[in-house]
UniProtKB/TrEMBL annotation, chains A, B:
<feature type="active site" description="Proton acceptor">
    <location>
        <position position="75"/>
    </location>
</feature>
<keyword id="KW-0547">Nucleotide-binding</keyword>
<protein>
    <recommendedName>
        <fullName>Type III pantothenate kinase</fullName>
        <ecNumber>2.7.1.33</ecNumber>
    </recommendedName>
</protein>
<keyword id="KW-0630">Potassium</keyword>
<dbReference type="GO" id="GO:0005737">
    <property type="term" value="C:cytoplasm"/>
</dbReference>
<comment type="function">
    <text>Catalyzes the phosphorylation of pantothenate (Pan), the first step in CoA biosynthesis.</text>
</comment>
<dbReference type="GO" id="GO:0004594">
    <property type="term" value="F:pantothenate kinase activity"/>
</dbReference>
<feature type="binding site">
    <location>
        <position position="145"/>
    </location>
    <ligand>
        <name>substrate</name>
    </ligand>
</feature>
<feature type="binding site">
    <location>
        <begin position="73"/>
        <end position="76"/>
    </location>
    <ligand>
        <name>substrate</name>
    </ligand>
</feature>
<dbReference type="GO" id="GO:0005524">
    <property type="term" value="F:ATP binding"/>
</dbReference>
<keyword id="KW-0808">Transferase</keyword>
<keyword id="KW-0418">Kinase</keyword>
<keyword id="KW-0067">ATP-binding</keyword>
<feature type="binding site">
    <location>
        <position position="93"/>
    </location>
    <ligand>
        <name>ATP</name>
    </ligand>
</feature>
<comment type="similarity">
    <text>Belongs to the type III pantothenate kinase family.</text>
</comment>
<dbReference type="GO" id="GO:0046872">
    <property type="term" value="F:metal ion binding"/>
</dbReference>
<keyword id="KW-0963">Cytoplasm</keyword>
Length: 226, 226
């Protein structure tokens, strides 16, 4: 089975367990020749996928997550479907943090991904332009501009997510998820979280269909017996 | 006395206690006809000030703050000069957080100002574009995209600064300082912090000059007596 999670920067493919991250400019029709089951948070990239590949199926309508949240991204829904109790942190172009309890989504929030977070500084002043050290969690107060920016980005991200996690279990995914998970003792990193959610939804949809077909067959038999 | 604190967005003027915030495009030579004593963190805006007004003096060389920090902005130095022990938070285009202890600067860090922080979301995805509610501190987990962004911006800023302040006193300044100070029980808002630091530096420089002149006069008298 070939799954695709269309994000704001990459196309994430899951090809029977093998994961690849493709930039829009690198997408090519010869890459895959199977049917593609996808979810998307980016309309433009979704168009590109549908233009590039012949047989694609949007799974959005079968991704069901119990939630009060209006407009929850379909990738967040899929990832949350894998977690009954705990915090789901997807660290990509944006960092999304969602809380699950008893199989129900309790709400969540969004932080900028590291890339755009750092870019925000450069746009304030050329003096704040540059790369940051993604090393250890900053402990001492910075004494250089570079460290002052690194502290701002990393410390604020960690403190906010830590405030949400508390003593709960935390499941990290996404491109920078492995890096960020290091700072949390109770974190589990799972690159496949969104894809697992997509597969759970496919399985649920198939079961529902089988059940309906079963009922229809039974109804048909009953009619014949009448 | 007319002071000017040149920032990355505004020119902040202090005209004998009266404060005004002028955008670069609104700066006009008829606004002031006194000498202007200024500090600047933006070379382009500094040029504009010097082009617009005849008599200007850069105070940077007389702003002395004991610190190990390399490249500390002159406005941060000036604000810190007013505080012997405590945390100085300047909430402008950027949010700078600096810790003072025993009259010495202990280090500090930078967060994006609210404007560029919010812009970072819009650059990730058009779905994350929009204004946020600057109301109360977010307590419940968000259930809409708008609240999810507001939570990300406000909560991460508050948690990071709170982590630094702890039980220390905190002094807030800058355009959004009054708003942000509301979330901290131990916060004092002072719009004039940077200007007070500039005046402290001017007073110190004058005292030093008077002392040197006194020594020179005394040396002159001694020479005459010889």
């Amino acid at each position: 089975m070939l799954l695709c999670d269309i994000g704001n920067t990459h196309f994430h493919f899951w090809d029977n367990g093998k994961i690849s991250h493709i930039l829009p400019k690198s997408l090519h029709k010869n890459m895959f020749n199977q049917e593609i089951y996808y979810i998307s948070v980016n309309a433009q990239h979704e168009k590109l996928l549908n233009k590039t590949f012949k047989t694609t199926y949007d799974l959005e309508s079968i991704i069901h997550l119990p939630t009060q949240y209006k407009g929850l991204g379909v990738d967040r829904k899929a990832a949350c479907l894998c977690v009954s109790d705990g915090v789901v942190v997807d660290v990509g172009s944006a960092i999304t943090v969602d809380v699950m309890s008893g199989g129900k989504h309790q709400g969540g929030y969004i932080l900028p991904g590291f890339n755009e977070f750092i870019n925000a500084y450069a746009r304030i002043s050329p003096a704040l332009q540059g790369h940051i050290n993604f090393g250890l969690e900053p402990s001492a107060l910075p004494n250089t501009t570079k460290d002052a920016i690194g502290y701002g980005v990393i410390k604020s991200t960690i403190l906010t997510i830590q405030n949400t996690i508390g003593s709960k279990k935390a499941y990290f995914t996404g491109g920078d998820g492995k890096y960020l998970a290091k700072f949390f003792a109770q974190a589990i990193y799972d690159e496949t979280l969104v894809f697992r959610g997509m597969r759970i939804s496919i399985e649920q949809a198939l079961q529902k269909r089988r059940k309906q077909q079963g009922i229809q067959e039974k109804q048909g038999q009953n009619k014949e017996q009448e």
